[in-house]
Design goal:
Layout (H helix, E strand, L loop, with lengths): L4 E5 L3 H15 L2 E5 L2 H11 L3 E5 L7 H10 L8 E5 L4 H9 L2 E6 L7 H9 L4
Helix pairs in contact: 2-3
C-alpha cells in the first residue's frame, strides 16, 4: 500500500503542526499544510492529496466555502474531505454532508488517534 498524502487546511499554525506531526509519526503519511482555504484549494489541485482535513472556522474563505470550491473544481472534486471544528453544530451537518464532507472531527483532537479516526471515516484499510 502506498503512502497516503494528506492536506491540512487550518488557519491556526499550532493545529497544523500538531496534526502534521501526529499523522507523520503515527501513520508515516506525507502531510501538506495550508493556512487558508484559497491556498489549500491551490495545493489540493496541484498535489492531489488522498484526503483533506479542513478547518471550518477560518478568516476570509471559511471551511464551508472552501469545501464548496473543492467540490466544484474538476481537479479536486474526488478528494475526500474531513472537517475539523471546535464548534460542531449538528444542524449544519446536513449541509456539510450535502457538499461532500465525509465526516467531522472535533477539536481538540487526540494526536495519538487522529490518523485512526481519519482512516475510519474514510474506510481506509477496513
Amino acid at each position: 500500500m502506498s503512502r497516503k498524502r494528506i492536506l491540512i487546511i487550518d488557519d491556526e499554525s499550532d493545529i497544523r503542526e500538531i496534526a502534521k506531526l501526529s499523522l507523520t509519526l503515527t501513520k508515516q503519511w506525507d502531510v501538506l499544510t495550508a493556512s487558508s482555504g484559497e491556498e489549500g484549494g491551490n495545493i489540493a489541485s496541484e498535489f492531489q492529496p488522498d484526503a483533506i482535513l479542513l478547518d471550518l472556522i477560518m478568516p476570509q474563505l471559511g471551511g464551508l466555502d472552501t469545501l464548496k470550491l473543492l467540490k466544484e473544481n474538476k481537479n479536486t472534486v474526488g478528494i475526500p474531505v474531513v472537517l475539523l471544528t471546535a464548534t460542531a453544530k449538528l444542524a449544519m451537518k446536513a449541509e456539510y454532508t450535502h457538499w461532500g464532507a465525509r465526516g467531522i472531527l472535533v477539536k481538540p483532537f487526540d494526536p495519538g488517534t487522529l490518523g485512526d479516526q481519519i482512516e475510519e471515516l474514510l474506510a481506509w484499510g477496513y
